[in-house]
Amino acid sequence: MRQQIAAANWKMNLTFDQAGNLLDEILKAPNQLQPHQKVVLAVPFPYLQFAQNKISGKVNFFTAGQNCYTKSRGAFTGETSAEMLHSIGIGYVVLGHSERREYFGESNAMLEEKVSMALTYGLTPVFCCGEPLSVREAGTQNAYVEQQLKESLFGFSEEQIQKIVIAYEPIWAIGTGKTATAAQAQEMHAHIRSVLAGQYGKAVADEIPVLYGGSVKGSNAKEIFSQPDVDGGLVGGASLIAADFIQIIDALK
Ligand code: PGA
Questions:
Q1: 7, 127, 240, 253: which has the fewest Cβ within 10 Å?
Q2: pTM beyond 0.85
């Protein structure tokens, strides 16, 4: 059965005390999570080990790095490797977020290397893709996202691709309060699945979780997640508010 994921992307937010309080609130809330439903918390690097300790014993909960480097180790001041994340028990890593692409110059080719590193060290990459507003307005979003998938992911084997989670995040919907409609999300998610099916076959494509990201909130999560090809969400702003994120976890169908 395809995995469903409510993923929190805290980005560069919260002090240590605030992070601890938010984790406590989220973890103490009762949930109805089934074995195929997961909560993934992409917290800032300094809090990862702390968050990892907090979730211990919570079977459906995982932590994630928000990035990793293209190499395992060496003289790369300021970088963090997939090997390091793996060595402290982190299960996931968000790669290719549009903010990384835009502010830190991450290209599709570089992301292929990062995904490869994550897979080498047994981390599940949450690979982000999505088009800017200009592309959406020109109506060429399908080709744009297809190109991102092809250039970063199609070098991987059938076995490897099944270990990847994809997050579709239209850039015009990130942090803007302007969510894609459930129909727009479904249309792109179905397209992503058909692109994956074209390369790896339908059976493989049907098992790859595709999350939606971009202004997901407690109030709209249920409608978005109810779409057949939407397998949960990658949530920024609303993941910093306990009540909102708990509602988002509950919206997993
Ligand atoms: P948002 O961010 O939920 O604040 O729009 C989503 C993301 O950037 O992953």
A1: 253
A2: yes
Name the β-bridge partners of 216.
none
Are 61 and 55 in contact by the 8 Å Cβ rule? The answer is: yes
Residue 169 catalytic? yes
> What are the C-alpha distances in Å from 56 to residues 59, 89, 114, 117, 130?
8, 10, 27, 25, 33
Q: Give just the sign of the alpha carbon dihedral 83, 21, 29, 227.
A: negative
> Could you read off the pLDDT of 226-246 as tens digits, one per residue?
999 999 999 999 999 999 999
**Is 209 a pocket residue for ligand 1 (Cβ < 6 Å)?**
no
Domain that holds residue 81: 4-250
Contact between residue 161 and residue 204 where contact means Cβ atoms under 8 Å apart: yes
Known catalytic residue: 97? yes
- Which residue, judged by its Cα, is nearest atom 3 of ligand 1? 236
Cα(102) to centroid of ligand 1, in Å? 14
- pLDDT (tens digit per residue) in 190-205: 999 999 999 999 999 9
Amino acid at 16: F
Closest residue to atom 6 of ligand 1, CA basis: 236
| Burial class of residue 45, CB neighbours in 10 A (0-12, 13-18, 19+) | middle
CATH of the domain at 95: 3.20.20.70
Q: Note the helical H segments in 154-220.
A: 158-161, 182-200, 202-205
How many separate domains does the chain show?
1
CA 144 to CA 148: how far, in whole Å?
7
State whether the beta carbon of 102 lies less than 6 angstroms from ligand 1.
no
Residues 6 or more apart in contact with residue 62 via CB below 8 angstroms:
38, 39, 40, 41, 55, 90, 91, 92
